[in-house]
Write a structure and sequence with these properties.
The structure holds 2 protein chains of 2 kinds.
Chain A lengths: L1 H4 L1 H40 L10 H7 L2 H34 L2 H12 L6 H12 L4 H8 L13 H25 L3 H9 L4 H12 L1 H16 L3 H6 L7 H12 L2 H33 L6
Helix pairs in contact in A: 2-14, 3-14, 4-8, 4-11, 4-13, 6-8, 8-11, 9-10, 11-14, 13-14
Chain B lengths: L5 E10 L2 E11 L4 E5 L6 H9 L6 E6 L2 E2 L10 E4 L11 H11 L4 H14 L15 H13 L5 E5 L7 H18 L2 E6 L2 H7 L2 E6 L2 E6 L1 H6 L4 H6 L3 E4 L5 E2 L10 E4 L15 E12 L3 E7 L6 E6 L14 E6 L5 E2 L6
Parallel strand pairs in B: 3-8, 3-9, 6-7, 7-8
Antiparallel strand pairs in B: 1-2, 1-4, 4-5, 9-10, 11-13, 12-14, 13-18, 14-15, 14-17, 15-16
Helix pairs in contact in B: 2-3, 2-4, 3-4
Classes of the chains: A mainly alpha, B alpha+beta.
């Protein structure tokens, strides 16, 4: 490298690196202040008694409580359930969006994105209107005679799941749609010309090539839903209690900052675990995809 | 492998008011190498895509052998296609790409592997079967695309400007190899290109297309020497379209009454080289340029039109001495002066 050997150019490259580092400094400061510091503070808090002495008692109390574990299970159930429905509903929708003409796709995309511009509180209460015992859906069901009794659609797990899937679907859709739209149309044609049916085209070409997008979308859904609060609080009717709601209750009812911090750390660890799992899975898939091509 | 003839019977395709295919009819013989040649927008790719099943004609019929495939789904046509950008599956290895059509046909795994390896050897890619597509050069990708298109022994092969992304040397090698592959397999091949030299080099017959119509279909030599329209004449190299009256016979006889096409390289400075039945053209020398293997002279006969004359360097004894502005007479054998039917200037 003759360029690096020139001292003047090397100095120029150094100062350029410093300049770009300086550009990222404000962002680093904000992340440090707004994310890292509070986390450190919560970790410290989790080891303190209400009197301010160091203890591991908070951990013992929280981890030995059955409520904690049932909350953890509810959290994972809600996240996995939301993810499952996002994949089931979102993947075919993304496929449909990616295969229509761009103008139609943009229009449909606007409809998909519309809920994102509405406050989550408004959307959640909107579902309440629809799903209540005397809500629109139950009125239609009983009115038409399809069901004798109104269905329990809200103030339970079902209602919470419906609200969460509704919230997460657009966020899942975006990366999946982007990945599918980027697939060269000639790959689909090539596959068909060699004899593939539509199902085979989807299975052997479209899904493998949009796996990255499906992974990203799944990660977004999981990470987001692990900390969901408003939807279970409003649509769960007190019967659906994930970790987020336990934290709030520990604080508002017992003013127990130590236990709440432990629960917060539990949530954090869960997110880190899931994130790491996704990254490992993605790497494994990337390594295995070459060579494996059976229809 | 038994190859099949293709009959294209008055196929028409419009997009709104734009006519992409204007009642195109074409018979392709079994085992023939036919090239669709034309500028972009001439309809050649639309015709190819109609054969592949990705474009549905508004009217007309497509027959593969005696089977009507006009409305048949693309995946039931058994046609091998090489796409312009190769369309190789980036998530599969070279071998998996070539095995793909066999896997779709439920060929037993061991047999599929053997056939894929044999086909890869046929296109000189042995040893690269485990490679990732991204790790291949353009020429290698081209060969994988070829292997994948022939491995399932289709009755017909379609190629959509397969060499346009390669550099010139590689393109010439691949032209030769594609033609050799065609001759080995005897598979009916329809090849789309906008490169006239490629079309002339490779084809049994060339169909020249322009604005959705076939202008002429003939052997490469006849397309070049005996173009039936002004468009074909000009598309196939340096052609001078000479209005009636510009050319006279060598003994000062009457001027021609027809529009003549004489290619730049068919002119001579020396009347003896043009033979006893030569025709002559006189004009003012407007420009001359030395191009290595030949001289390019630009003549301006009366009437304002410019005529290009190409004299091989070996026969261009007097060219260096010619001065612009001087009057020059050039000669061509009468056999090389081709009357273009119906092209009154």
């Amino acid at each position: 490298m003759t360029i690096a050997a020139d001292p003047a150019l090397a100095a120029g490259a150094r100062s350029e690196r410093r300049f770009f580092l300086a550009l990222s400094l404000p962002a680093l400061v904000i992340v440090g202040l707004a994310a890292i510091l509070p986390i450190l503070w919560i970790i410290r808090q989790s080891f303190l008694t209400t009197g301010g002495e160091y203890t591991v008692g908070n951990y013992e109390k929280v981890l030995s409580s059955g409520l904690t574990w049932s909350a953890l299970i509810t959290t994972v159930e809600l996240s996995l359930g939301t993810l499952a429905f996002c994949i089931l509903l979102g993947t075919p929708l993304a496929l449909a969006l990616a295969s229509v003409r761009p103008r139609v796709a943009n229009l449909l995309m606007a409809f998909v994105m519309l809920p994102l511009w509405t406050s989550i509180l408004v959307r959640t209460y909107g579902w309440l209107v629809l799903l209540r015992r005397d809500g629109l859906i139950n009125a239609a069901l009983t009115g038409s005679g399809l069901t004798a009794e109104p269905l329990p659609l809200v103030y339970n797990f079902t209602g919470t799941l419906i609200g969460m899937v509704h919230y997460m679907l657009p966020l899942f859709l975006l990366p999946v749609y982007a990945a599918m739209r980027d697939i060269d149309a000639n790959l689909v044609r090539a596959s068909a010309s060699m004899g593939a049916t539509l199902g085979q085209v989807i299975r052997t070409v479209i899904l493998p090539l949009s796996a990255g997008g499906i992974f990203s979308g799944s990660m977004i859904v999981f990470i987001y839903t692990i900390g969901f609060f408003i939807t279970p609080a409003v649509l769960g009717g007190g019967k659906v209690n994930p970790l987020s709601i336990r934290i709030e209750r520990t604080l508002s009812t017992f003013q127990d900052w130590g236990s709440a911090s432990v629960l917060g750390i539990l949530l954090l660890v869960l997110m880190a675990l899931v994130g790491a799992m996704f990254l490992v899975a993605r790497r494994l898939v990337a390594r295995n995809k070459v060579g494996a091509a059976h229809a | 492998m038994k190859s099949l003839p293709i009959i294209i019977d008055s196929v028409r395709k419009t997009y709104g008011s734009y006519v992409a295919l204007d009642d195109v009819s074409l018979d392709i013989r079994a085992g023939e190498f036919l090239t669709l040649l034309g500028p972009s927008g001439s309809g050649k790719t639309t015709l190819l895509m109609a054969l592949a099943g990705f474009v549905r004609p508004d009217s007309g019929k497509l027959l593969l052998g005696d089977r009507d495939i006009t409305r048949l789904a693309p995946n039931k046509r058994d046609i091998g296609i090489v796409f312009q950008n190769y369309a190789l599956f980036p998530h599969m290895s070279v071998l998996a790409n070539v095995e793909y059509p066999l896997a779709l046909r439920k060929t037993p795994k061991a047999e599929a592997r053997q056939r894929a390896l044999d086909t890869l050897a046929r296109v000189k890619l042995e040893g690269l079967s485990e490679r990732n597509i991204a790790a291949l050069s353009g020429g290698q990708r081209q060969r994988v695309a070829l292997a994948r298109a022939i491995v399932f022994e289709p009755r017909v092969m379609l190629m959509d400007e397969p060499l346009s992304a390669l550099d010139r040397n590689l393109r010439e090698t691949m032209q030769y190899e594609i033609r050799r592959l065609h001759d080995d397999l005897g598979i009916t091949t329809i090849y789309v290109t906008h490169d006239q030299r490629e079309a002339l080099t490779m084809s049994d017959r060339v169909a020249v297309m322009n604005s959705g119509r076939i202008q002429q279909i003939d052997t490469p030599q006849r397309i070049y020497d005996r173009p039936s329209t002004r468009f074909v004449a000009q598309f196939m190299g340096e052609a001078n379209i000479l209005a009636p009256g510009l050319v006279r016979t060598i003994d000062g006889g009457d001027a021609s009454h027809e529009t003549l096409m004489i290619r730049a390289e068919n002119f001579h400075l020396d009347a003896r080289l043009a033979g006893p039945d030569a025709v002559a053209l006189e004009g003012m020398l407007r420009a001359k340029a030395f191009r290595g293997e030949n001289w390019l002279l630009t003549l301006a006969p009366h009437g304002g039109q410019e005529v290009l004359v190409c004299i091989p360097s070996a026969l261009a004894g007097g060219c260096a001495e010619l001065a612009t502005g001087q009057r020059v007479t050039v000669y061509a054998s009468a056999a090389k002066a081709h009357a273009i039917p119906g092209a009154m200037a």
